[in-house]
Amino acid sequence: MSDTTNSILYSELGADDLSFVYLGKFDNSVLGFATEILKGHISQTVESEGKKNKLSFLMIESFQNILRYGLAGRAAEMTSGEVFIVRKHKGSYYITTGNYVENVNIAPMREKLERVNSLSPEDLKKLFMMTLQNKKISRQGGAGLG
């Protein structure tokens, strides 16, 4: 990374209680490494068992969505188009991911995101619980939220 990029990152993330940024090749070994680090932080800083479980689930599901839907593993020219960020800032956690997707997957993914984003907090919790209880697994092997 350039000094300018590092400066920008530091100015944006310097006040965070936690800043975990991964940009690079995504595979299961990186998932294991990231999970170990982040679960360690969560277990030391989050008191509620329910919140620990939700955060862990969301982080793993988000990371796995990059593995399932991302193109970097399939296209050599896209080696750094995937990013995974977890931040804790002013008491709130933020999980951000980004990756290239095939054009044919854009519309179905947009529909799912719009559906989830339109839900009230209560309905979102119901969907989350239903997904966990039914153990609904998509074709790609995830919970079907991404």
The secondary-structure class comes to: alpha+beta
The N- and C-terminal alpha carbons lie at a distance of 29 Å
Give the overall form.
globular
Q: What gyration radius follows from the Cα positions, in whole Å?
A: 16 Å
Q: Give the fraction of residues assigned to helices.
A: 40-55%
Number of beta strands: 3
How would the blueprint of this fold be written?
Elements (H helix, E strand, L loop, with lengths): L2 H11 L4 E6 L4 H18 L3 H21 L13 E7 L2 E7 L4 H16 L2 H14 L12
Antiparallel strand pairs: 1-2, 2-3
Helix pairs in contact: 2-3
Describe the fold and architecture.
It is a single chain. The chain is α+β, with helices and mostly antiparallel strands and 146 residues long. The protein has 2 domains: 90 residues; 45 residues, no CATH class. The chain contains 5 helices and 3 strands. Strands 1-2-3 form a 3-stranded antiparallel β-sheet, with helices on one face. Strand 2 and strand 3 form a beta hairpin. Helix 2 runs antiparallel to helix 3. The radius of gyration is 16 Å and the shape is globular. The protein starts with a helix and ends in a 12-residue tail after the last helix. 8% of the residues are buried. About 5% of the residues have low confidence.
Question: Gist?
Answer:
This protein has helices spanning 3-13, 28-45, 49-69, 103-118, 121-134, and strands at residues 18-23, 83-89, 92-98. With 146 residues, the chain is of the alpha+beta class.
